Amino acid sequence: xxxxxxxxxxxxxxxxxxxxxxxxxxxxxxxxxxxxxxxxxxxxxxxxxxxxxxxxxxxxxxxxxxxxxxxxxxxxxxxxxxxxxxxxxxxxxxxxxxxxxxxxxxxxxxxxxxxxxxxxxxxxxxxxxxxxxxxxxxxxxxxxxxxxxxxxxxxxxxxxxxxxxxxxxxxxxxxxxxxxxxxxxxxxxxxxxxxxxxxxxxxxxxxxxxxxxxxxxxxxxxxxxxxxxxxxxxxxxxxxxxxxxxxxxxxxxxxxxxxxxxxxxxxxxxxxxxxxxxxxxxxxxxxxxxxxxxxxxxxxxxxxxxxxxxxxxxxxxxxxxxxxxxxxxxxxxxxxxxxxxxxxxxxxxxxxxxxxxxxxxxxxxxxxxxxxxxxxxxxxxxxxxxxxxxxxxxxxxxxxxxxxxxxxxxxxxxxxxxxxxxxxxxxxxxxxxxxxxxxxxxxxxxxxxxxxxxxxxxxxxxxxxxxxxxxxxxxxxxxxxxxxxxxxxxxxxxxxxxxxxxxxxxxxxxxxxxxxxxxxxxxxxxxxxxxxxxxxxxxxxxxxxxxxxxxxxxxxxxxxxxxxxxxxxxxxxxxxxxxxxxxxxxxxxxxxxxxxxxxxxxxxxxxxxxxxxxxxxxxxxxxx
Amino acid sequence: xxxxxxxxxxxxxxxxxxxxxxxxxxxxxxxxxxxxxxxxxxxxxxxxxxxxxxxxxxxxxxxxxxxxxxxxxxxxxxxxxxxxxxxxxxxxxxxxxxxxxxxxxxxxxxxxxxxxxxxxxxxxxxxxxxxxxxxxxxxxxxxxxxxxxxxxxxxxxxxxxxxxxxxxxxxxxxxxxxxxxxxxxxxxxxxxxxxxxxxxxxxxxxxxxxxxxxxxxxxxxxxxxxxxxxxxxxxxxxxxxxxxxxxxxxxxxxxxxxxxxxxxxxxxxxxxxxxxxxxxxxxxxxxxxxxxxxxxxxxxxxxxxxxxxxxxxxxxxxxxxxxxxxxxxxxxxxxxxxxxxxxxxxxxxxxxxxxxxxxxxxxxxxxxxxxxxxxxxxxxxxxxxxxxxxxxxxxxxxxxxxxxxxxxxxxxxxxxxxxxxxxxxxxxxxxxxxxxxxxxxxxxxxxxxxxxxxxxxxxxxxxxxxxxxxxxxxxxxxxxxxxxxxxxxxxxxxxxxxxxxxxxxxxxxxxxxxxxxxxxxxxxxxxxxxxxxxxxxxxxxxxxxxxxxxxxxxxxxxxxxxxxxxxxxxxxxxxxxxxxxxxxxxxxxxxxxxxxxxxxxxxxxxxxxxxxxxxxxxxxxxxx
Lengths: 624, 624
Known about the structure:
Largest interface: A-B, 50 and 50 residues
Oligomer: homodimer
Largest sheet of chain A: 8 strands, parallel, barrel
Distance between the termini of chain A: 39 Å
Mean pLDDT of chain A: 94
């Protein structure tokens, strides 16, 4: 199907909310009504999956659905597998006509994927909600489409994990990589070695029942769970309660800062391997997936580094003994690494290429670090590639600067763009289409229960502290939160630092600023009016904002940011004056303004003034 | 303390977020910092209450609190009672200084009330969050401060009940009246008579374990739970599974419409009383509070009405046998009613006065019906009065036109104003102060978990269906949802009707419109500028809105409303022109505009155009 047809269909279907885009889509004529009589009939699909799907539709539409409705008929050709499995068939075919819809798939997992597509197609129409007639054939490009969540540096309770699993399933991701231990916390209950969580977690760990609950929750959504226990480095939390495992004598404390730290497990002691044998055996019973991640990254101690290849080989032998296949970060790629090992590449395309060249399988995470707070377009442009042995990729959510309150907003909606990269054809790469659909996706994702949009206003209200929200909101809408590196530069963060400032409320990517950039690119008369109004708002906002900051530490640090926004507005207004005067702005004026914009593009309170981008476009246009 | 001092203190303390206002407040000097080291120490307060309080503070401030902090020292003079009890001492004294805070109360319940006050005092300051120094002595005016929730007409899952209990506790309410049965649903599991829920609930009922969970949840928050089983009318759902209890032969179906229906229990049959004896006995074991509500309202069948006094007496005897005191609606007040009965007045002040005159105790609900969607000021002006035997009041949340998604927004924040009426002195009646504090309260209430603000934007986004939200939001901010009577007039609602239209998203009271009315009342030069901008926005919004409605049933019904908003804006702008011209508008112009405003004040799609109110003020001002 040509791209033109895709977009005609998209305009009709759910107003462009399909993400990831299916492989093949053919529009039909007519529409299927979604009302109180809607329901699912058919065979081979587990009742809980149908019930969840109905609940999702009911939330999304606000329609109370009875248990006995019909409209979508499901045919699943094979019984549900015991577990979601790497490489299983996830394809499905969806046919929607005015008379009803039919979803056919060879496996339950395919049905789950098709349910999500169907839900995305529902849109308001002339007589309530409806799905446009369409024929869809779909299957994933990569079999490994994952997200890693670090629950060590900041604790993420079960409900955070589960709501993110729901959102992952909604964009057809199928691997949840659970980074369960690091220097700052050991997050799983071990019954054999209870000192691990007793001394290494501040009481914040998952019980074994909770682990089983999450694994079952993910399984029901067609998502595999890969546990990671990072070894032999990043292991401070292990040796707080069990210093006998460490390469150097203790005592140790849970690490409260961020970085790379000295404590490593003792790779030279048989006691370490005896412990790991028992520990891996216990964890193998909790995590049914055959893949098991041992970390292996960022060991800096020279001696430990020397011992690491041998350490990895012995751990690998233990994993094999317990029926597991090893996964490790780039650094595990060393002579003697057993064939079949899966290497997760965080260092870059060269590292991944080397993995493939050496005959190992790999997944790409370089380019998909959500905590860098890069634009979705940057992630979207990174492709795992088609080399033999590359199974797909994983986005990584490292948790130095996120809490249970803020983590969803760092993951979503940008994660949806990465999910499309993993699922859809590599030819699907139109950034404008991606952003249009990602914005719609960001909204319907709320019906899955994920809270990426829920905390923005409350967190800003918290900072406003009973003062008017509006001036703070104008500033926040024009701003973007600084990412990992910028925040690390301040060097003052620990586990105890409250993540309740403006930078924690601000978004990774500002939608209002993106819309303004689009308006600047078009620059019709109507656009100029809109742009002028927004620029004036920025200018006028400063006085109102400054009136609020007196004696308030949260707002006080933002005073320069608000002044910068005023400056951006003033520059933009002068640029528009030039544009409307039909005479280009003098080159020295352009240079001067660009210099001023460079100044105010500097971070303030770890926040970036996104408003600079459209103003820069205006200045450039004014000079032409 | 004079009102002036109250307001000076309020300006400092939490910027006016205290609700209900305490009896006595004396400002001190300095402030207590709330940071990661904050915690509660002391004796006599249950650990779970302290843990909940710390979690609340952590959510509200975004500060991770350890388990070992200090700052608030609690002294509770008596051990916790088994149950919250009518008339128990709920007083507390709170002293905050720069060095620490002290909370003293004779009972655990008093400590809980003091915790809520403390939480409300926290505000951003010059070095993070802080509480201003203050001395507070506080106790409630009425011992019965309740909210009734109808879970029969629309099913409210446990989480809806629990999040509302949290919000109730936050504004010091102490009675949850649970309307558990009505024509449209029987919502409790009976093990003795399982046909009740099997045939009378569509599967939507609370298990006995869930009932115990909710009762314990409420108890931990100092809230009594009063069950209501409405008898002998409003009983259709009972007789679907047990037609032998009905006065007329069945069969019966669960009622799907709203109103007053014929089925009544057979008051002439001994079998009915034998059943009720066993049923009340079973329920008495589930609900530990000594008060038990038997409804008794709205029986229309002439014969049943004649039998009702005798029916009530026999039920009362059964309740006494099971250790319960009867509560009933106004209609139970008839000759022969046992002394000690508590009468809940929904008919009005005369009914309540009659109750008191006859020596019974009473609570007031007339004037507190949340489902009428009246302004908070209307409820705030209603006072239960000081007559002997009046224990307080209850707001009522009847559920014909609310779902689990919308109910919180109908209850809150207006419920907080009623809670203040029940707790604070009757001298506390400044409506401006109430609104100012209610707005702040609406925001901090979000930290309790209640979802009254959470669904507004998502519900509007659902209607926008991927089109721009802004035009719909401008319209929604200028609108208010019609209440019970207006919606009942359409006459088309059943239990199956989706509550997903604009009227369901619109608020009971528009804050933006209230702010505009305040600006019109001041009418400074800055206000005139703000007002003009808003009026222009209304005028310009219509074209953008009309461009969205084509072929969309949800937006199509709003097209006249949007045109009306444009008209309101135009009239308002002309009125401002007159005001700025320094010559009064001609009387016939004023009359003409008022006529036009009368027209557009008519409901459209069950929605009221709140925008008419400030425009009417402008027109009146222009004519003076």
